[in-house]
Design goal:
Layout: E1 20-22, E2 38-39, E3 42-43, E4 50-52, E5 58-60
């Protein structure tokens, strides 16, 4: 299996309060890969301002 991500996450700088999407596309696999996002070694949890999409994208809104 090729473990290379189709779309690598990149660093972004945005103004506080602006929505932003961090894109991530893991390699194709069966079953589909599950993507987890971390900040400072802490797992980011979905909540009123953060959501993870089935594609692996992370949305701040």
């Amino acid at each position: 299996m090729d473990w290379t991500f189709i779309l690598q996450p990149i660093n972004k700088t945005v103004r506080k309060g602006d929505p932003v999407t961090l894109h991530c596309r893991p390699p194709h696999s069966r079953p589909p890969a599950q993507v987890s996002w971390f900040r400072n070694d802490q797992l980011l949890q979905s909540g009123p301002h953060i959501s993870t999409q089935p594609t692996g994208d992370l949305l701040f809104h």
